[in-house]
Design a protein that fits this description.
The complex is a heterodimer.
Chain A lengths: L1 H26 L3 H27 L3 H30 L8 H7 L1
Chain B lengths: L1 H21 L3 H26 L4 H25 L17
Helix pairs in contact in B: 1-2, 2-3
Classes of the chains: A mainly alpha, B mainly alpha.
Chain lengths: 106, 97
């Protein structure tokens, strides 16, 4: 019974985090701050949902597959975000700085 | 419970698609599609448990692999302008907003 409660809370937490990340991607002003929103949903939401599913599956081959999926997402999501932000910076996309620092930079 | 989580994932995918359509710069679109791909992986995993067929998890794993490679390929296209198809020297990054 404890396992069910734990997995349900993980699943619900993951779902909520996903929606929060989705809302965050709309509310942040520019691209670089939006990377924070996509970063949250990619890593923590995926981890919670996969953990919740793994708890329901118990010690079985499916849990091993879920661990593989998590391990792969855990390694590649930050790499993709880094490559994206790097490409944006090289592509000439200026981050939106506040008025104090923005003046002397551009 | 699993349907509630799949509903939450579908909402996130809708928001990501909206950002992909509205995104001013091309990098917003790539970030939104990357997020959409990760959510598809999770949706397939949740649906595997919903329908009880555990072999769907392999599809989720392959989708995660392909999604990452797709994002990197699109980035290469955006940075260098093309996939060496035009034969001109394009080792210099192309300025694009």
């Amino acid at each position: 019974m404890i396992i069910d409660i734990l997995s349900w809370s993980c699943l619900l937490g993951g779902g909520l985090l996903g929606v929060v990340g989705g809302i965050g991607i709309h509310r942040f002003p520019d691209f670089y701050s939006r990377q924070h929103a996509t970063g949250i949903t990619d890593t923590l939401c995926a981890m919670l949902i996969l953990l919740g599913l793994g708890l329901q599956a118990g010690m079985s081959f499916a849990t091993f597959k879920l661990a593989l999926i998590f391990m792969f997402l855990f390694l590649t999501s930050p790499t993709a975000s880094h490559a994206l932000a790097n490409a944006a910076m090289h592509g000439g996309l200026k981050p939106k700085l506040d008025s104090a620092t923005g003046k002397d930079e551009s | 419970m699993l349907t509630a989580v799949s509903l939450a994932i579908l909402i996130t995918m809708g928001l990501a698609l909206a950002r992909a359509l509205m995104g001013p710069t091309v990098y917003d679109r790539i970030a939104a599609i990357n997020m959409f791909g990760t959510k598809t992986v999770l949706l397939i995993a949740v649906f595997a448990f919903l329908s009880g067929r555990m072999d769907l998890l392999d599809i989720a794993l392959v989708y995660a692999l392909i999604n990452f490679i797709g994002v990197v390929a699109v980035l290469k296209l955006v940075i260098y302008g093309d996939f060496h198809s035009s034969g001109k020297d394009n080792t210099k990054p192309v300025k694009v907003d």
